[in-house]
């Protein structure tokens, strides 16, 4: 009477041994098969396979034998890119301060990264030298997302706008010293939201950046006659420094004929970088559309992620990227501005590419065709026929987002008791 049961168990044992042998012989942990790979760093723009082993990129080429991988994921018809790098976010959500960028307006990174293909976030000045170590302890070191940081030149960072007006607490030496002590995660200095007529916030940030050997990002704050924007990008920023919120309303961009103004092309020629930093109110189609159609593309695409922007026109990284796609920026350039270039800007050349040996941070994207509406930060709208969506994200070789369950197994093919832990017992109530 036990023979059928014995035969089933024996068959399962044989199957298990076969699976173990296959896995023991497998070269790769994961194989993403048949996707269109866009890897600007390596000049790849073609249908290829991407293999992952030990959390690293193991191979990128066409025709990898699926029998060499423990897990094969069909990504045909999709785009495979390096994990996206969002250069401007606010994720210091652990201060408990109401209404502050470093507080309730920040978001915790893991809830808003992987679902949009983002594997690396750079917090743009939420903390300063006085509270950075608390930020690191409570957010950076606890996140699965790779979180890097730019230190605010204001000692307390963005605990409301008030600390960012205190020029007596803009200590270039203390800021540079803190950056030096945390060189593994601090990648820049930030000046933001300054309201006064002086250049002190910008200039001290540049001083700190020079001492620490890192770039400076400037959110220009209030646009005043005493310190015009053209002087920021033309005189005060160094090559490699970043002007974020590049399409903010007060920034003069094009002349009456739609030509990009000379001061912008001159600033770019001397090495100043332009970042999107969409935000809740720092992006207008009025300047973005003519500038982009004229070929003045952003060096880096970023979100300025916080509760106000994610619940408004910005939405997320892919929505921001899509806005440039629909007004004529080629997909390859959009990807480059979201992967390779931001990695270079923050001097983290190990990021932003799919080179063999690199950490396997990967985004699998779909380009949706249809009728879509887009909003800027000032009630302006734009219609478009394409939109990017994230199908899958891998962080260090592990699938951390899988929109359509591509990496899973049909439940009908799994053992009858799958989902039951060793410590659990299935207890069926007795029949009456």
UniProtKB/TrEMBL annotation:
This is Allantoinase. Zn(2+) 1 binds at residues 88, 90, 190, 304. It comes from the Bacteria. It comes from Luteitalea pratensis. InterPro entries: Amidohydro-rel, Deacetylase_Atu3266-like, Metal-dep_hydrolase_composite, Metal_Hydrolase. Zn(2+) 2 binds at residues 190, 245. Transmembrane segments: none annotated. Residues 1-26 form the signal peptide. The modification N6-carboxylysine is found at residue 190. Its EC number is 3.5.2.5.
């Amino acid at each position: 009477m036990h023979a059928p049961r014995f035969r089933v168990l024996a068959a399962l044992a044989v199957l298990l041994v076969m699976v173990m042998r296959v896995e023991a012989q497998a070269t790769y942990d994961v194989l993403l098969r048949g996707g269109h790979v866009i890897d600007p760093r390596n000049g790849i723009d073609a249908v290829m396979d991407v293999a992952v082993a030990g959390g690293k990129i193991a191979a990128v080429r066409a025709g990898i034998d699926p029998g060499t991988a423990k897990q094969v994921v069909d990504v045909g018809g999709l785009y495979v890119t390096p994990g996206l790098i969002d250069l401007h976010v606010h994720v210091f959500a652990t201060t408990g301060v109401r209404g502050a960028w470093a507080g309730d307006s920040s978001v915790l990174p893991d809830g808003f990264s992987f679902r949009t293909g983002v594997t690396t976030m750079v917090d743009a000045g939420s903390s300063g030298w006085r509270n950075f170590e608390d930020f690191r302890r409570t957010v950076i070191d606890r996140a699965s997302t790779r979180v890097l940081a730019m230190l605010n030149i204001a000692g307390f960072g963005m605990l409301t706008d008030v600390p960012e007006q205190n020029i007596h607490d803009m200590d270039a030496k203390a800021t540079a010293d803190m950056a030096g002590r945390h060189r593994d995660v601090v990648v820049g200095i930030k000046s933001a939201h300054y309201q006064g007529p002086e250049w002190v916030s910008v200039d001290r940030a540049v001083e700190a950046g020079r001492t620490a050997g890192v770039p400076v990002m400037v959110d220009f704050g209030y646009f005043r006659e005493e310190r015009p924007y053209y002087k920021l990008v033309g005189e005060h920023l160094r090559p490699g420094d970043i002007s974020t919120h590049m399409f903010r309303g007060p920034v003069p961009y094009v002349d009456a004929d739609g030509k990009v103004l000379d001061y912008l092309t001159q600033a770019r020629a001397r090495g100043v970088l332009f970042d999107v930093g969409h935000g809740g109110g720092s992006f207008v189609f009025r300047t973005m559309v003519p500038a982009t159609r004229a070929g003045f593309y952003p060096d880096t695409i970023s979100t300025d992620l916080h509760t106000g922007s994610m619940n408004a026109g910005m939405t997320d990284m892919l929505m921001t990227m899509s806005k440039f796609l629909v007004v004529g920026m080629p997909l390859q350039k959009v990807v480059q501005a979201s992967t390779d270039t931001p990695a270079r800007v923050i001097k983290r050349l190990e990021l932003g590419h799919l080179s063999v040996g690199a950490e396997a941070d990967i985004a699998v994207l779909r380009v949706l065709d249809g009728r879509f509406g887009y909003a800027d930060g000032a009630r302006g709208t734009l219609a478009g026929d394409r939109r990017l969506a994230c199908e899958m994200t891998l962080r260090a070789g592990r699938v951390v987002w899988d929109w359509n369950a591509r990496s899973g197994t049909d439940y009908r093919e799994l053992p009858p008791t799958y989902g039951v832990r060793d410590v659990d017992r299935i207890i069926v109530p007795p029949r009456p």
